[in-house]
Amino acid sequence: MKFGVSTFITDQGISPTSLGTALEERSFDSLFIAEHSHIPVKRETPYPGGGELPEMYYRTLDPFVALTAAGVVTERLLLGTGIALIPQRDPITTAKEVASLDLVSGGRVILGVGIGWNREEMRNHGTDPTTRGRLTDERLHAMRDLWTEEQAEFHGEFVNFDPVFCWPKPVQRPHPPIYVGGGEGAFRRVARFGDAWLALGESPEKLGPQIERLRDLADREVPVAVYGVPDDPEQVEGYGRLGVERLLFYVPTMPERETLEHLDRLAGLVARYS
User: What's the angle, vertex CA 49, arms to CA 48 and CA 55, rounded to 5?
Assistant: First the structure.
């Protein structure tokens, strides 16, 4: 297995440059960061984790700016979105951001994507929450065309453009890996667009049967990464038995000193399996 970190980078915690350097020094292979463009003050959508929405959701940095900063001070660290909210993103702009980051980082981008949960946030971007799945699929399809075709065009239900030039193209061919996040409702999207499934913190006991169902649906061996993993050796071993490709330990948003101490503890755990 490979080991990375998932976190929220905000204006109150460790900087992306310090975090990127610290992760590479401790031999973590990847950094995946969350995205929220904003949080509406009046929110009816319940927080999936239960209770009050943590403040880190209100204060996330733009993921591509933060990952660029981390990429500048590292050489090997993979730079991932965990996750980019595709229903809230223009596909042409996002395709250019992903390709540009892949170029300046020397081909180190992983695009983690999902459909999101905060309906009020989506509506502020002009997105109907009830059709966000179909919208996401079209935008992913269009982005893939923009990355791989010299003159791309797309005509769909939500996305529509005549032939365009869109450069740069990604360094990775045919494009950076797409990790599709979500539960079993995302399996058809994983099968169609995913280079991997980004599972959201399911225990090994629950994850095993889900992996089997996904691979039956996709009719192929879909790699699996798990987001938000606790630092529990028994769970790590359980994921290893399932053949999970990458574990992303959850790192709370904290100031630099506390973050580095937490990373040291995680690095000690990872060293057992290296």
Answer: 105
